[in-house]
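User: Design a sequence. Structure:
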């Protein structure tokens, strides 16, 4: 069983890098257990917003609040309660695939005691168990990253352009993952208007925000 889904509220949130504002005065509400899409072109700020919602970065202005099961969570707690996947996410290239999955499961508890071999099968990498991560194709690495995220026990899933590097079959695989492995968790997807990345979304927010 997964933990209770995460709820997120943003009030007048902004993010600045140096003198440049990436986001300004963003007001959003993410109901617990919903599927939400953040849409925008490259460089629009959607990845920055996603990282703020993950509590990886602090806002330059405004307020973010998180809750699960009616209880407030601090920004320090949020990264331990969610799973994240992005195209630039660093996998450990010198590890074999099976070693990488085993290490991940030592650091983050899997859903329903999911075994290493199950994650291998889930990522369609059973025949690549002893291949080093650096020797996988970009699509294989993306499937590995997504399988690790979906199989992690968490309150929410945050995915940044999740079908990057995936072909048509890979996109169908991803949509099945959403259907079979979301388990009612809050799902927030940052996408460059690719509807295959946010099937069944309850809401979609378009950049730039007014």
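Assistant: Done.
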């Amino acid at each position: 069983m997964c933990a209770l889904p995460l709820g997120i509220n943003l009030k007048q949130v902004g993010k600045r890098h140096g003198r440049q504002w990436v986001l300004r005065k963003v007001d959003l509400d993410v109901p617990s257990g919903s599927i939400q899409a953040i849409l925008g072109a490259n460089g629009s700020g959607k990845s920055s917003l996603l990282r703020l919602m993950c509590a990886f970065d602090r806002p330059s202005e405004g307020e973010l609040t998180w809750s699960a099961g009616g209880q407030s969570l601090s920004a320090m707690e949020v990264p331990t309660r969610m799973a994240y996947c992005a195209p630039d996410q660093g996998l450990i290239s010198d590890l074999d695939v099976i070693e990488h999955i085993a290490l991940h499961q030592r650091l983050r508890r899997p859903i329903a005691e999911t075994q290493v071999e199950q994650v291998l099968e889930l990522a369609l990498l059973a025949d690549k168990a002893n291949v080093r991560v650096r020797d996988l194709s970009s699509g294989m690495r993306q499937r590995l990253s997504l399988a690790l995220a979906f199989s992690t026990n968490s309150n929410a899933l945050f995915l940044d352009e999740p079908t990057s590097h995936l072909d048509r079959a890979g996109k169908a695989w991803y949509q099945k993952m959403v259907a079979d492995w979301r388990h009612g968790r809050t799902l927030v997807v940052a996408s460059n208007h690719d509807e295959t990345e946010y099937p069944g979304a309850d809401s979609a927010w378009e950049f730039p925000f007014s």
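Residues 6-206 form a domain with the Rossmann fold fold (CATH 3.40.50.300). The chain is about 25% helix and 30% strand.
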